[in-house]
Design brief:
Shape: globular
Structural class: alpha+beta
Radius of gyration: 30 Å
Helix content: 40-55%
Oligomer: single chain
Number of helices: 38
Largest sheet: 5 strands, mixed
């Protein structure tokens, strides 16, 4: 491709990354744009195992020809090899296969939409999309596919649309988790319409109950009408609210479907669906007593859940919800929709993934911790922002311990409401009788009575006991500077209705004490007091209490010995801001709180954490820039002063983090400047993977930071005192770019090929640690593809096109020898050995790099 075309494509891609997703998709995701781009770009498609690359348009045309003919079609791959594509009949469907002369035939995906035969396309259309009604996008595709075969660019857009169907996503997740390589875009789609297809469309409903009676009810009814038993399973994905049991009951499914559903629930259901199914099933015990067995099984499973287990179902569920919701927050998807609707979609998607794991027979620890990395902060802060409209559900309520409490409370509550229908002694022992082996033992106040994830905007329905109200009132009226005077109010505010005037009494008590409430010097107790009062302010919408709390927090920060971190004060402020339902007033309060907090005394690491929180908050709500600009400037200035501080330089505490080839080959400059190496318990603070194809290694895979990777072993080269930060940056840049001379200049507009030198502060006791970061560029991130690239680079050594030791297999061997283990490394190793026919990597290197002249 010539340089002018390269430049055109680079500009287009940069524009795509720059625009917001909604605008980018509207401009760049059209057939017209695709057709225009095709004039300057050839797109390829890889098929088979090992993968063979074809020109996309030529492949589509060849498949279309095969579907319309009994004769096989010939197509040239990008490497010049010739392949055959033919058609066969499976059942009553036409399918195509690919093979090389004399080789094994491989069945290709179902390309029914490429058929030039109208009846074939209509049949495929009915099988794939026939159950979807009222969806504008699908209706448009139905009309287009019915009239003619899709052109090349339409095929790309249609395949993207298929990936927004929950059924297709589930199949892809199930297949992907079995291979250990499901892409993030499949696990957590960010398109708004995907979630509409998952949990139903919201029209004018602004409250959870209204939506359950409207959009959710219509969605569940449509699912059951069109898909029967599978539709019931889909409807259960909406079980994050107890009232969904009413919707399910109104469907009046056949007894046969109900029996099959509950058998599946007990054996293969996700936790939220099991809870929702239990709440519904216990109602039907009178006329379907056979449901007792699966209900007992569900109760026993939830009783056995250990919220402390790092590989347990509850930990997996919490991690998935945080991962998915954090992704939506980062992408800006659904920000205009009520939080309850977005959260219902997020939990439904997490439940769908959970089902895929169960169906694939994988252990729950297959959901790796990395799925929360990089997104947990977005989940947490988005939920803090949501408190303005739904003040009763806190992000802390996603903890596995709270999920266990909620599930136990919901099951016990459903059993109590239907106690007269429960005849089984085992079910009564589990849910009604008082004993340690039953679920009632897990129903503890206040945890089992706290609001669920869809109840954040719902006012507490339970009236507090009269004596409790009087206790709270008496404590607040007699309060001087005793922090315990607020305890009863704080402990009950999320469970019971807060009596009128209680928040004002609390505000008055704070004023009467002249803001000298004796906050404990214990960090946790002091935080609990301030955070608890902030929650009361939010739940009661008491702007008076929120404003008094701001002053109280300032006094505690200055006078108490309790070391509440700035991040802790950030949380307190966001809790209190929920008192302001009006968006402008909420932003002003957040801005004032953040500005004051950002100018307070804090150490560098605290400033760094707070700056990260603020950056995420500004990304979620850009309109906060107007009131948080000073806070942002103050934190950045503090960090820059710390970075430039001579105190750090004077310690001689400077290092370079190595996590790839740098470990074994730091180069002469870095080696000469190194005084010692640190390796004990050192790991990358970011996940990495073999995700970059290095041009200097003939496209061999190399380790780079990625979101969906693993934290791996690393070492730190501690540099001599005389080495300055600037000199260290230059040395590291020259080593990574293989330049003998030159200095590092941070690029104003980094590209995918830019070598960036980044910094870590106070890392493993080293004042400043440098490391390099280069963008990932391998799109098909599978062990098979990595092995193909590594083998090709080794063969380049054999042909004299690459220096020995620079190939991908040697790189992999060295990384494994250094103790580096990524998500794909084991499968990558096995794939290289299988493809090379060798028992170990040393033998593979010797075999594949041997000179072709020998």
């Amino acid at each position: 491709m010539n340089p002018d075309i390269d430049m055109q494509i680079s500009i287009i891609l940069e524009a795509y990354r720059t625009f917001p997703t909604s605008i980018a998709d509207a401009v760049f995701g059209t057939p017209e744009f695709g057709e225009a781009l095709s004039h300057v770009r050839r797109t390829t498609v890889s098929l088979g195992n090992p993968s063979i690359t074809f020109d996309r348009k030529r492949l589509h045309d060849t498949i279309s020809g095969a579907l319309d003919s009994s004769e096989e079609q010939t197509i040239d791959a990008e490497d010049g090899s010739k392949w055959q594509i033919g058609m066969t009949i499976i059942g009553d469907q036409k399918r195509v296969f690919l093979y090389q002369q004399g080789g094994k035939k491989s069945l290709l995906p179902d390309y029914w939409y490429l058929s030039p035969v109208d009846s074939d396309r209509l049949s495929g259309l009915d099988g794939t999309l026939g159950h979807i009604d009222g969806d504008e996008h699908i209706q448009n595709w139905r009309a287009k596919i019915s009239s003619s075969r899709l052109n090349d660019e339409d095929v790309s857009l249609f395949e993207k649309e298929l990936m927004l169907l929950p059924e297709i996503v589930f199949e892809n997740i199930q297949a992907g988790v079995s291979r250990g390589e499901t892409p993030t875009s499949t696990l957590a789609p960010t398109e708004f319409r995907y979630y509409e297809r998952l949990v139903g469309k919201r029209t004018t409903e602004a409250a959870t109950i209204d939506y359950l009676q409207g959009g959710a009810s219509a969605h569940a009814a449509q699912q059951y009408k069109q898909k029967g038993l599978e539709g019931l399973k889909n409807a259960l994905l909406l079980s994050s609210h107890p009232k969904m049991a009413d919707v399910l009951h109104s469907l009046q499914p056949s007894n046969e479907d109900v029996r099959a559903l509950f058998k599946w629930l007990a054996e293969s259901g996700d936790r939220f669906s099991q809870v929702g199914g239990f709440e519904w099933g216990v109602r039907m015990l009178e006329h379907l007593p056979e449901l007792e067995r699966p209900l007992i099984s569900i109760a026993e499973q939830i009783k056995a859940d250990d919220p402390r287990s790092p590989n347990g179902r509850l930990k997996q569920l919490a991690t998935l919800v945080s991962f998915i919701d954090g992704g939506l927050a980062h992408a800006g998807t659904s920000r205009d929709a009520p939080p309850f609707w977005r959260r219902m979609g997020v939990i439904a998607q997490a439940s769908l993934i959970e089902r895929a794991f169960i169906a694939s027979g994988l252990e729950t620890n297959a959901t790796r911790e990395w799925k929360g990395s990089g997104r947990g902060q977005y989940f947490y802060i988005q939920t803090l922002v949501d408190l303005r409209t739904e003040p009763r559900w806190l992000p802390d309520f996603l903890e596995p311990e709270q999920l266990k409490a909620e599930f136990s409370g919901r099951l016990v509550g459903a059993a109590a409401a239907n106690a007269n229908k429960i005849k089984s002694s085992k079910l009564r022992e589990l849910l009604i009788e008082e004993n340690e082996s039953g679920l009632k033992a897990d129903v503890r106040f206040p945890f089992a009575f706290l609001p669920g994830p869809l109840e954040g905007a719902t006012e507490a329905q339970t009236e507090p006991p009269t004596d409790m109200v009087e206790t709270v009132r008496s404590q607040l009226k007699s309060a001087s500077d005793d922090p315990h005077a607020f305890t009863a109010l704080v402990n009950t505010s999320l469970v019971f209705k807060v009596a009128p005037g209680m928040a004002s009494l609390a505000a008055e008590a704070i004023r009467q004490a002249k803001y000298l409430v004796r906050a404990s010097d214990d960090d946790d107790q002091a935080f609990a007091l301030l955070a608890g009062l902030a929650v009361v302010a939010g739940v009661t919408r008491s702007t008076e209490l929120a404003n008094e709390l701001r002053t109280l927090a300032r006094v505690v920060r200055r006078r108490s010995k309790a070391a509440i971190t700035p991040a802790g004060y950030f949380r307190i402020g966001m809790f209190a801001a929920a008192a302001f339902a009006d968006i402008a007033a909420w932003r002003n309060f957040v801005g004032d709180w953040m500005t004051e907090l950002s100018f307070s005394d804090m150490v560098e690491q605290e400033a760094r954490v707070l700056a990260g929180h603020l950056d995420t908050l500004l990304d979620i709500d850009a309109d906060l820039w107007g009131v948080c600009g000073k806070a942002h400037t103050a934190l950045r200035a503090a960090l820059e002063v710390a970075r430039m501080s001579p105190d750090v330089e004077a310690k001689g505490s400077l290092g370079i983090l190595a996590y790839g080839s740098l470990i074994n080959d730091p180069g002469a400059e870095i080696s000469a400047a190194t005084t010692k190496k640190l390796s004990t318990d050192v790991a990358t603070p970011f996940p990495v993977e073999f995700a970059r194809s290095s041009s200097s290694r003939k496209n061999a895979p190399t380790l780079v930071p990625v979101d969906n990777g693993e934290f791996v072993k690393a070492i730190i080269f501690v540099l001599a005192d005389k080495v300055t930060v600037s000199e260290a940056r230059d040395m590291l840049w020259r080593r990574e770019t293989r330049n003998a001379t030159g200095t590092y200049r941070p690029p104003a507009n980094p590209t995918n090929n830019s070598v960036l030198v980044k910094e870590l502060d106070l890392f493993h006791g080293i004042g400043q640690v440098l490391y390099t970061s280069i963008a990932a560029n391998i799109e098909t991130l599978t062990a098979e593809h990595l092995a193909d690239l590594a083998i090709e680079s080794a063969q380049a050594v054999s042909n004299g096109g690459l220096v020995a030791g620079r190939d991908g297999i040697t790189y992999l061997r060295d990384a494994l020898s250094a103790g580096i283990k990524t998500r794909l490394s084991d499968d990558y190793l096995r794939s290289v050995l299988k493809k090379s026919g060798c028992s170990d990597l040393d033998t593979a290197i010797e075999k594949l790099t041997a000179s072709s002249q020998n």
